[in-house]
C-alpha cells in the first residue's frame, strides 16, 4: 500500500472561485479621508486551504471517520484501515471477515478516537477498540440499522464508552454501553446493556434518527438533541449527582408525559445532518447548524435557558443551484463564522454573520463524486473524500475579514474586537462608527470615535462647528488631546487653548441662562481640566494666555482657581488684597508657607488684620526671618493703631523669648518699642538680657541713648553697669536712689581704689547733698575701704562730734590692734631665722658616700654620669629622672612653681660657672643669711626657707662633684664623699 496522510503534494491546488472573497473596498465604507494610506495589503493566504492527501486507495473508499487524530476508513467490501495521524506512516489494516453480502453502512468514532462502531447494511453492528485488532460483534444490537450515535463526552474513556445513545432507522433511541474488556468465559460481549428509552415519529410514522447529540449544562442539567428528516427534537432534564453512570433514561422519563419540544420544516430530502462548533477554550459547543430540506437552520446554544438550548436561530435558504430533488447537499460542517456545505462536486462556505456565500471550491471530475465531509472536533480539520481521493481543509485566520461584516451590519463593537491587532482596519471601523453616530444625531459618541481615527482634524472640527455642536466639538478636542504624545507640544497648546475658550463660552452662556446645576457641573469639569496633571506643563508654559482668556471673560473665580493650580500664589494674594479680602489672602499665605510672599504682603496685611498676621507669623516660627519683617512692623508701629503696636510688640517678644533670636536689630527694635510704648517692660527686659556685655544682643550705646532720650534713669544706670562705666553709673544712680548707687559701687571687685572712689562719691553726696550724718556713718559700715578720716573733709567746719564719736573711737582701736599684729609678726620672723641658721649649721656636718658603681634608682644607669640627688634615706636619682617621676603627681600649681624654680636654678648655675668663685665659708654663709634676713617679714623668711633646700642641694651637688673628681685622681677606691648642707 502506498504512503498516506500528512505527505502532501508539493504543488497544491490553491485556486479559488470568484466567489471566494467578497471584500469591501474603502470606497464602500466611507474611508476617503483616513490617515492610513489606502493601499492593498500583501496577498493573504486563503481562509480555507485545501490539500489533497498523497494517497491512492487500493479499493474504493466507502466510508471515513476521524476524531482525535484517529482516522478510520472502510475500503471495498471487507477491509478497514486505521491510521494514527501522529504516525501516518504506520497504517493498520484489518479484515472484517464477513462471508455474507453485508456492506458497511456507517462508521461512528467516539471523541477519544478509541471506540469504533461499524454499522452494517444487514442491521448488525461491529465494535473495534483502538488497542485491539479483533472486530467484535454486538449481539444485542442485531436487528437494528444504526443511523446515529450520541457519545458520552463526560464518562467516555479508552476502555469504556460510558452510557451512550443509539438512534436507528426505525426512530428508536436506545441507551447502551460498550466496554473493551474481554469479559468472562460465559459473557464476552462488549455491549454491557442495550435498552430502548424513546422513539421518534414524523407524520404519525416512525422516522429515522439522523443525528444525536448529548450535552451537559449547569447544575447536572443535560440536553439531548435528536434530528429526523424534518424535525429537531430537544430533551431537557436533570440527572442526580453521582448517578451519571445510570444513563439517560431518567431524562426521557421526565418528558414521558409531555410531548418533546421540536422544530419542524415541511421539506423533506430523505435525511438531515446537524453539526456543532466548540471553541478551543470550551468543552461544550456554542453554536449549531442543521442541514434539512428547507435549508440550514443555525444559531447559538444557550445552556442557561430552562427549556430550550437553541437561541438566535436563523434559516439560510438554499441557493438556486441547490435542488433537494436533483442536487442535494450531502454534508455540513460548522466553523466559527461559517458553515460548509458539501455538494456532489463542490464545497460552499456560507458566512453565518450575513448568510453570504464567501467561498466555493469545485472538485475535478477525475476524483469522482464527493461522498462525505467530516470535521475532527479535536483537531479542527475538515476531511472530504471520494471513492478514490482524500482531501483536507486547513481553516486559518477565519476571523480575518469578520470585522468588515460586523461593520456593514453596524455592529461596531464586534467589528473592533476582531481587528484590534490591525490598526488600519480599526481606523476604518471607528470612522464608519463615527459617521453612523453623526448621521443618527448621536454627536457625543461620534466625537469620541472621530477622536480615535486618523481622519483629518480640521475637517472633523469643521463638521461639528457647522452642525453647531459645541459639546461634541469639546468632547472631540478632549479625546484628541488625551491621545497626543507629550512631545507634540504645538498640538497640545492649540487644543488646550481652544478647549479653554469653549469652556469659558459655555460657562458664560449657562450663567446668563441661570441654570445653576449644569453651570456648576460644567465649572467642576472645567476646573478638573485646568488641574489635569497630564497637561500641567502646557498650562504652565502658556499660563499668561490662559490668564488673558479668563480675564477677557471676566471669570475671576476660575482665574483664582487656576492661579492656585499653577501655584501662582502671588497673583491669588494680590487679587484678594485688591478686593479687600485680607483674611482670604492670609489664608493662602498660611496654607502654602511661602516666605517670600510673607515678606512681600505682610506690610499690607499688617495694616488691616494685625492680630491674624502675627498669629500666622508665630505659627511659621523659625521659617520666617524676623529681620525681614521689621520694615512692615516699623511702618505701622509708627502710624498704626494701638492694636498694631501691641501685636508688633507681641511678635518681637516671641522672637526674643521663644525663638531665642540673637539678631541685634530685633533686640534694638524691641527696646525702642518698650521705650516708646511699654516702659514697664523695659527695665525687666534689660535685667533679663544679662549683666555682661558678652551676653547682650542689643546695642548698648543705642540702648543708653534711647533710655536717656526718654528719661529712664534706672535703665541708664543698668546699661552703664553693663558697660562697666561705674563712675557714670554711680553719678546717675545718685540722682535716683542712694541704694542703687551703693549696688553700683560694689561692682568693681578687683579694683579697690575705684571702689573706694565710688564710695567716696556716695559719702560726699550723702553729707553734702542730703546732709545726713547718720547715713554717712552707714557708708562706713557698708564699705570696709572707707575710714572716718576719709569722709571727715566732707563735713562742714563746725559740726557736732557726737554724731561720729563712735566711728573715731572704732578707728583708733583698729589702728592699735594692727600695731600689735605687726609686733607679733616681727617676733615670729626673728625666731624663724634663728632656727634656720641652726639647721644650716647642723647640715654642714653631715655627709654621704656614693660608690662609682651606684646607679640611678629610676633609669638604672650609672649615677655619676649626670647631675643627681642623694637623699638621707639612701635613694639616689639623676636630676632629670627625678624631675620626670615627680612632675605627674604634682598639682597644676605646684608644676608651674617647679618650672619657675628650675629656671632660677639654671640661671644660678650659669652665673656660678661664669664667676668661678670658691665656695664660701660657713661663717660667711651664716652672716650673709643674717644680713639677708634683717628687716624682712616672717612671710618672706618662710618663703626663702622653702626655696633654700633646693639651692643648698644644688651647691652641695657642685661641691661634692668637684671633691669626687679630686678623690678619684688621688687613687681612692671608687668612692665619692658628700657633705649635706
TrEMBL record:
<dbReference type="GO" id="GO:0008333">
    <property type="term" value="P:endosome to lysosome transport"/>
</dbReference>
<dbReference type="GO" id="GO:0008270">
    <property type="term" value="F:zinc ion binding"/>
</dbReference>
<dbReference type="GO" id="GO:0030674">
    <property type="term" value="F:protein-macromolecule adaptor activity"/>
</dbReference>
<feature type="compositionally biased region" description="Basic and acidic residues">
    <location>
        <begin position="955"/>
        <end position="969"/>
    </location>
</feature>
<protein>
    <recommendedName>
        <fullName>Vacuolar protein sorting-associated protein 18 homolog</fullName>
    </recommendedName>
</protein>
<keyword id="KW-0863">Zinc-finger</keyword>
<comment type="similarity">
    <text>Belongs to the VPS18 family.</text>
</comment>
<dbReference type="GO" id="GO:0006886">
    <property type="term" value="P:intracellular protein transport"/>
</dbReference>
<dbReference type="Pfam" id="PF26148">
    <property type="entry name" value="VPS18_RING_C"/>
</dbReference>
<feature type="coiled-coil region">
    <location>
        <begin position="805"/>
        <end position="846"/>
    </location>
</feature>
<feature type="region of interest" description="Disordered">
    <location>
        <begin position="905"/>
        <end position="969"/>
    </location>
</feature>
<feature type="domain" description="Pep3/Vps18 beta-propeller">
    <location>
        <begin position="46"/>
        <end position="395"/>
    </location>
</feature>
<dbReference type="GO" id="GO:0007032">
    <property type="term" value="P:endosome organization"/>
</dbReference>
<dbReference type="Pfam" id="PF05131">
    <property type="entry name" value="Pep3_Vps18"/>
</dbReference>
<keyword id="KW-0472">Membrane</keyword>
<dbReference type="GO" id="GO:0048284">
    <property type="term" value="P:organelle fusion"/>
</dbReference>
<dbReference type="GO" id="GO:0005765">
    <property type="term" value="C:lysosomal membrane"/>
</dbReference>
<dbReference type="GO" id="GO:0031902">
    <property type="term" value="C:late endosome membrane"/>
</dbReference>
<feature type="compositionally biased region" description="Polar residues">
    <location>
        <begin position="926"/>
        <end position="948"/>
    </location>
</feature>
<feature type="domain" description="Pep3/Vps18 RING C-terminal">
    <location>
        <begin position="850"/>
        <end position="915"/>
    </location>
</feature>
<dbReference type="InterPro" id="IPR058919">
    <property type="entry name" value="Pep3/Vps18_RING_C"/>
</dbReference>
<keyword id="KW-0479">Metal-binding</keyword>
<dbReference type="GO" id="GO:0007040">
    <property type="term" value="P:lysosome organization"/>
</dbReference>
<dbReference type="GO" id="GO:0030897">
    <property type="term" value="C:HOPS complex"/>
</dbReference>
<keyword id="KW-0862">Zinc</keyword>
<dbReference type="InterPro" id="IPR007810">
    <property type="entry name" value="Pep3/Vps18_beta-prop"/>
</dbReference>
<feature type="region of interest" description="Disordered">
    <location>
        <begin position="1"/>
        <end position="25"/>
    </location>
</feature>
<dbReference type="GO" id="GO:0006904">
    <property type="term" value="P:vesicle docking involved in exocytosis"/>
</dbReference>
<keyword id="KW-0175">Coiled coil</keyword>
<dbReference type="InterPro" id="IPR000547">
    <property type="entry name" value="Clathrin_H-chain/VPS_repeat"/>
</dbReference>
<feature type="repeat" description="CHCR">
    <location>
        <begin position="621"/>
        <end position="775"/>
    </location>
</feature>
